[in-house]
Every structure is written in structure tokens, then in C-alpha cells.
Write the C-alpha cells for this entry.
Amino acid sequence: MKSLVTGATGFIGSSIVRELLKDGAEVKVLVRENSDTRNIDGLDIERAYGDIRDKESVKAALKGCDTFFQAAALYANWASDKKLFYDINVEGTRAALTAALEEGVNKVVYTSSIAAVGYRTDGKPADEGIEFNFLREDSPYIWTKHLGELEAKKLYEKGLPLVIVNPAGVIGVRDIKPTPTGELIVKFLKGKMPGYIAAGMNFVDVEDVARGHILASQKGRAGERYILGCENVTIKDFFELVAQAGGMEPLTRKVSYPVAICTAYLCQVISFLTNKPPRVSMSTARNIGKYAYYDCSKAIKELGMPQTPVKTTVEKAVNWFRENGYIGSNPKK
């Protein structure tokens, strides 16, 4: 039994690799020549070089593999070239999964996103049946993950043995980038979070998400999607957990939604002029201003998805960021 993992140098992908190794599985990873490989250095894995946008390199890497974890994606709130989101999250998904179909892989797990599921406007937890309803202009990441999932479903209809997983707000160890979710923790710990918005989201431990991928490959029903999440938490309560773990005072200032939008707009203008990432993106302001809660019971019941308490996960994340210099003046990035 050998598995190929794309996105293996990233946050979720590297955790999938480590969980597979715990199970004694043979693991091959597809990495680009210029990838930052710190998350997988020293691991007993086979490396293949290529790019998910290059179908032939994926097909070559899939030789001898019976399971394929397509976890590669561009997860960011901003990029100087917005076309990259489409190239990687849509075209790359199509190319990689087409390669798996042509190679006849036994099982494919595609890492989508909770953003591709949508949310309930009444604030109640959404399940896998909710239709996508985020605004297209909110975020190129959100929109392209939705389109990427549509491409994945088309290939399932052509015979690809596909299971889709939709991770929620993933936090935890080895978030080297850090991801937009991890950046919330880093900014708070650096004292750069002016307040909180009346909103909420579902948070989950990256190691539980990785285990959820493996369980999906073993128990997931082809053609189904599974929300990989844990606890629904208000943004205020989330930052209180971060404050406790970091030994800091909690946020007390509530920022209104209109103020957040105006601030993000000004940051976007400055970003356009400087071609540098905005301090607050419009995507962050718009999407963090929702109660995007999710029902994770399907993954728990059908897959056995583990549920590490968010308090524990926040503590792990804070400790990892601190130990790796992300909070000090010389972060190891």
C-alpha cells in the first residue's frame, strides 16, 4: 500500500504524511523543485518532483500508488497575481484528478474547503447539503475552491473513485506559512489585533483533519463530501482561548462590521498602490463577519473523525508559534 500526497510541504499535507507514516504506510510526495520542504525534511518518504498543474508529472508520481491525497492548493487571502488562485485551485485540481483517473488509482481523497460548502444565514450549523453561497467577489480563494470542487465532481461522474473532504478553520502545529487562520493567532499574539467582530466559525486541529483524510480513504463513500471540523466558537471566545494560552489579556473592544469593511477597503487601496499584502484583506473582513457554523456529525459517525478540544488545539498552536519564533522579532519563516 503506497499513497501519493500533493501539498505535502504545507500545513495539512505534511500532517497527512505524518499520520500515514504512523500507520506504517509507504508514502510518496509530489513537490516542486523550489518548495520549502521544512515540514517533511527527515521523514522516511519518497519524493517525486512536479506540479499539480502538470498532469504528466502527477501521472508519473502516481506510478505504484493505490491511494491519492490531493491536498495541494493556494490558501491565502491575497496574491499579487490573482490568476494563480484559478491556475492552482481549479486547473491544478482538474489536471491532478484527471491524472488519477487515467492511472486507475483505487481511492482519491480531495481536500476541498468549508468555504466550498457555504453557510446558513440563520446562524445554525450547516451540513454537507448546503449549497455554496459565499459572494464571488469576497475571495479568489473561496471562489476557486468552489470551482475546484465542481471539477472534482465532474471527474467522479466519469468514474474517479473520489471522496471529498471539507476542512473547517484548521489550526495547530507546523503552520509555517502561516495560513490565514493561523495568522489570526500570530497577529493577536503580536498585539496587532485591535478588536473582535461579532461572528463565529468552526475550528479544528490539523492533526485531526489529517486523520480524517486517512479515514476518508478507508471508510468514505465515493461521491460524498465530509466536513472535517470540531467546535463552533465565536470569534470573541476564540481570542479568549488564544489569550489564555499566550498569557495575555483578552480582547475587549468590539469592532463593528462597517468599520471592519472600511478598514479593509483602505488596506486594499494601499495594497494596490504598493503591491504588498494588505494588513486586513476585504476577504477577511467580509467572511469573518459571519456566523459560519458547521455540523460535523457525518464525519464523526461515518469516518470516526477525532475531536480534539479547541482549547487544547489553541494551546498547541500558540506553543508551536512561540517555540518557532513567530511571535518574536525574528520569526523563522
The mean pLDDT is 90. The chain is about 40% helix and 15% strand.
